Amino acid sequence: MPFANRQLIGVLIEVTETTDVPVNKLKPALEILDSTPPLPAHLLKLARWSASYYQHPAGEALSQALPVLLRKGKRITISRR
To answer: What is the DSSP string of 13-75?
Structure first.
């Protein structure tokens, strides 16, 4: 995601057709690294809860729950057995 003169890794947690957020406050996703959710639903819920409980930005809590390679913008292959 572009922020000023740099690009950052972001996590899309929802895609919707409408929003109350002004268009000039939205940032475009330049690339989708994986169409499969990188976190199981229970870990996403835990990360969001911990961000709320500890009064911490949700994006930072989600980032810490992600595999390191994803945080660096790399693609990963997860073996689900």
So the answer is: ----S--SS-GGG-------S-SS-SS-HHHHHHHHHHHHHTT--HHHHHHHHS-HHHHTT--
**Distance, CA of 68 to CA of 40 (rounded, Å):** 16
Query: What domains can be seen in the chain, in order of their start residue?
Result: 2-71 (3.40.1440.60)
2-59 pLDDT per residue, tens? 667 888 777 788 888 899 999 888 888 888 877 778 888 999 999 999 999 999 998 8
d(CA 33, CA 65) in angstroms, rounded, equals 16
Q: Quick check: pTM over 0.70?
A: no
Burial class (CB in 10 A: 0-12, 13-18, 19+), 62: buried
CB atoms within 10 A of CB 78: 8
